[in-house]
Every structure is written in structure tokens, then in C-alpha cells.
DNA sequence: GTATAAATAAGGCAAATGCCGTATTTTGTA
DNA sequence: TACAAAATACGGCATTTGCCTTATTTATAC
């Protein structure tokens, strides 16, 4: 059974080159189609989803490869995605993996290596160019990078507002908070309005999340 | 210039087998010595530190491979370490990488692959068996696992419910979640009802908080 | 002492939420 | 194949929330 491969690559020359590489292995690989961007790929997948593996460029117009990977791994979780790109920075690597990519190759890989990688990903592996593998491990070694640390903005919350925020985070509603703080529920609502404005959020969830992220509570 | 390789392996048979595999490539690899545990390895390194790469077992008496890796990467940062073990659980993988290992192979790898890996690590790569690479990516995809947690109650949330919970945590409302998941807002509400029942909470705040605390999301 | 900010209180209104019900389709599995 | 679980979809209804406005009292600072 041949592995059905699609590509997403905006550059015509590169797309042709990739296709030629794939065609060197007619016994193992069946080239299905090539999309010119993420949006185009999703359209083609909706028409013909019988694809096993996608070779995905990152930088593409309209919809980039990371966003496309994100959506495809939701909509077509059985499809394996290999990023095939010139980018080798930790940021792009991490974003791609987060989005659901299971492999990450640099564009200068040999046809042989690309074919090997496609076979490997179908066996549940995670093919990576050596430099990418090294950077993945670097990310694992320093997980602090994985949690984007914030730049400690000053949201200028008042003491009372922080108190209210703490109650909020416990899941109390306005009335319960007003009882806990011995003030009117109207006051609590006003505090929360002010908190929302200062944190630039519009509901309890995100207010508490942001407050936790920024170590306000 | 031949790559100077040492091994740490308590099992005599396996150590012999590894040595044989290395000796299949006399042109590329020079076998320096074999240690029987981490402590022994450190002693030998102090006597003769002219080693490029170490093939390190994990489970060894006196001092295990992870602790040895940790110390060696401090004392001899130029030495590259490849874990060569039967363990393929995320825990051991993560610990090894944290300790400073730059490669991770399973013991059933072919001589060819081991030799390739040694060359690759000397070029700055990070050779991994496919299953290990996949698990590394899984770790990167879910960095919360990187912070070890304790007792995990089973709330028996379904995959879909967890998806909804994730969207909830981003501050999306029912309608936005329904659009993100391509289902009706009624369905989302029903999922959330079920989530509340299972987690024994009654609003979004506490549901998300509890889910985070219990590493569900 | 007098601005300024903070905390307090209140009301209206549209939208979102939480909870109850029912019911069909899909999926996994024994 | 048959059963159970999961996912889907819909409606009603009371409550809560988010946002607007206004207004008084209390601290703090200059």
C-alpha cells in the first residue's frame, strides 16, 4: 500500500522540486496533490481527504502552515503532518509541534531522507532533521521557555480589586463576594468592571487567568 | 579522526554486544573503555578524559545513568552522551534530557543506526529512536506534564469534554466554542453540563481551575 | 485645604450562563 | 449484531453577568 502524500508550498519551483523528489520513490509514495497555501490545502482535503501525510511549508500567504497544521490536526487527526521548511528557530519548531506536527524537516534534506521520514512518520515515529532534534531537546531541557514569561506590566490594580479578584478565582459569584467582603453586590460589580477595564478582559475566566499569569494573584 | 567512544553498562553480555557493534566500524569509531556503572565511569573519565561520546545505560548499580549523565555534562561539557537503554517511558526520557543527554536510543537499534547516531551527535544533532522522538514531541506538546504532579483522580472526562474545557479556559463563550468545534451551541452547553456534573462544580471558573489543578488541561 | 483616587452604593438592560428536559445519530465494543 | 457510551441537537426558564450611568463617602497626596 503506497503512502498518499500531499504538499503545501506556495513557491512553484520548490513545490516542483519536492514533487520530483517524491516521484523518485514511485513504489512507496503516491503523490496526491499540491496546495499553494493552508486555505487551499483545507479546501482540497475537504474534497479529497484520502491523504496519509502532508509535507507542510510554514511561510505561505493567506493561511500559514502552522495555522493549517492546527486545523488539520483537529479536523483530520489521522493525517500525519511533516513541516518542511527553511525555518529552524525554536519558536517556529515549538509552534509547529504545538499545532500538531509530528515531524519537522529542513528543506535541504535529500530525497532519500524525505522518503525515509514519510515511512517513519507512518510507523508512529517523529522524523526530524538533526538540527531540529537538537533544538527540540533544548526546549525540553529548558521548559521555562515553553511558558511565555510575561513582561510584568503594571496593571495598577488596587488592593480591594485584588481582593475581589482572589474571591473571583475561587468561583464565588457577585453576591457571595459581597458577603465575604461585607459590601454591597453593586460595589463588587463595580470593582469587577474596573478590573476588566484595567486588565483589558471581558469576563471572569480571562480576568483570573491573566491575573494568575501575571502573578497578580 | 576517529570518534572515541566509551560505554557504561552493567550487564556483561550487553556491554560485549555493544562493543562488538562498535567494532564493526573500525574506520570511524575507536572504542576506549567500558564502565560497569556511573561511578566507575566518572573514575575512568578522570583518569582518561579523552572521550568524545558515551553510550550510557540507565539502570546501573551504585550510580545510575541519569545521575552520571548529570555529573558528566557538568564536569566534561564537551562529551556527548547518548542514552542506550530499554526504557522508553516519558519520565526516563525527560529526566535523561534534563540531565544533559543529547541522544536517546533503544537497545534494539542496529549497529548501523548506532554508528550513524554517534556521527550525528558529533555534528551537533540529537539522534533518537523513532519512538523516543515521538514521545519527546508529546512532552513538548503538553508541557504541563513536565512539572510532576501527584495523585490523579479519575473524573472520566471524554475527549470532547476535555476539548471543550480547553476552549473554556481560553475565555471563549458557548457560541465561540461551538464555532471552534463546528457543533451547535446546544451541544456545547450539554458538554459543559456534563463536565460540571463530573467535576462537581457549577460554573466555568471552578471547572477550569479544577481541570488545571488536576492536570486535565 | 483641596484635588485625586479609591471605595462605596444603586438601577437598567441585553446577553450569557446554569440547569432542567427530550431525542437522534455516531462510535466503540462485547 | 446488539448494547452502551458518546456526541449531537433543541427549548424553556430563572439567574448571573457584563456594561452603562450616576452619586456619595473616605483616604491619600500635594
Q: So what's the oligomer here?
A: homodimer
CATH architecture of the largest domain in chain A: 3-Layer(aba) Sandwich
What would you give as the CATH superfamily of the largest domain in chain A? Answer: Response regulator
Order of helices and strands of chain A: EHEHEHEHEHHHHHH
The pLDDT mean of chain A sits at: 86
Q: Which spans of chain A have pLDDT < 50 for at least 5 consecutive residues?
A: 148-152
CATH class of the largest domain in chain A: Alpha Beta
Amino-to-carboxy terminus distance of chain A: 56 Å
Structural class of chain A: alpha/beta
H/I helix tally of chain A: 10
Quick one: overall form of chain A?
A: elongated
The strand order across the widest sheet of chain A is 2-1-3-4-5
Helix content of chain A: 40-55%
Under CATH, the topology of the largest domain in chain A can be stated as Rossmann fold
Beta-strand level of the residues of chain A, as a percent range?
5-15%
Largest interface: A-B, 37 and 37 residues
Query: Can you summarize the main beta sheet of chain A?
Result: 5 strands, parallel
Number of domains of chain A: 2
Radius of gyration of chain A: 24 Å
Describe the structure concisely for a colleague.
The first copy, chain A, has 217 residues and is of the alpha/beta class. The first copy, chain A, has ten helices and five strands.
Describe the structure.
The structure is a homodimer of 217-residue chains. The first copy, chain A, is α/β, with parallel strands linked by helices and 217 residues long. Helices cover 51% and strands 12% of the residues of chain A. Chain A is built from 10 helices and 5 strands, in the order E-H-E-H-E-H-E-H-E-H-H-H-H-H-H. Chain A has helices spanning 12-23, 38-47, 65-75, 90-99, 111-122, 130-141, 159-169, 174-181, 185-199, 204-213, and strands at residues 3-8, 29-35, 53-56, 80-85, 103-106. In chain A, strands 2-1-3-4-5 form a 5-stranded parallel β-sheet, with helices on both faces. In chain A, strand 3, helix 3 and strand 4 form a beta-alpha-beta unit. In chain A, helix 2 packs parallel to helix 3, helix 3 runs parallel beside helix 4 and helix 7 packs across helix 9 (185-199). The radius of gyration of chain A is 24 Å and the shape is elongated. The model of chain A is unreliable at 148-152 (pLDDT under 50). The interface between A and B is large, with 37 and 37 residues. The structure holds a DNA duplex (30 and 30 nucleotides).
Amino acid at each position: 500500500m503506497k503512502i498518499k502524500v500531499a504538499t503545501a508550498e506556495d513557491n512553484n519551483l520548490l513545490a516542483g522540486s519536492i514533487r520530483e523528489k517524491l516521484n523518485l520513490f514511485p513504489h512507496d509514495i503516491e503523490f496526491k496533490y499540491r496546495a499553494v497555501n493552508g486555505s487551499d490545502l483545507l479546501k482540497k482535503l475537504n474534497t479529497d481527504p484520502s491523504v496519509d501525510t502532508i509535507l507542510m511549508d510554514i511561510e505561505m500567504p493567506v493561511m500559514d502552515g502552522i495555522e493549517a497544521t492546527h486545523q488539520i490536526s483537529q479536523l483530520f487527526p489521522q493525517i500525519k503532518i511533516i513541516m518542511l521548511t527553511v525555518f529552524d528557530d525554536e519558536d517556529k519548531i515549538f509552534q509547529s509541534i504545538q499545532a500538531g506536527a509530528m515531524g519537522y524537516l529542513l528543506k535541504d534534506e535529500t530525497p532519500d531522507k524525505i522518503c525515509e521520514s514519510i515511512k517513519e512518520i507512518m510507523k508512529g515515529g517523529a522524523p526530524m532533521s538533526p538540527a531540529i532534534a537538537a533544538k527540540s531537546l533544548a526546549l525540553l531541557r529548558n521548559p521555562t521557555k515553553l511558558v511565555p514569561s510575561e513582561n510584568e506590566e503594571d496593571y495598577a490594580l488596587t488592593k480591594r480589586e485584588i481582593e475581589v479578584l482572589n474571591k473571583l478565582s475561587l468561583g464565588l459569584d457577585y453576591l457571595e463576594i459581597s458577603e465575604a467582603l461585607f459590601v454591597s453586590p453593586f460595589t463588587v460589580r463595580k470593582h469587577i468592571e474596573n478590573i476588566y477595564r484595567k486588565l483589558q478582559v471581558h469576563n471572569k475566566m480571562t480576568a483570573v487567568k491573566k491575573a494568575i499569569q501575571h502573578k497578580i494573584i
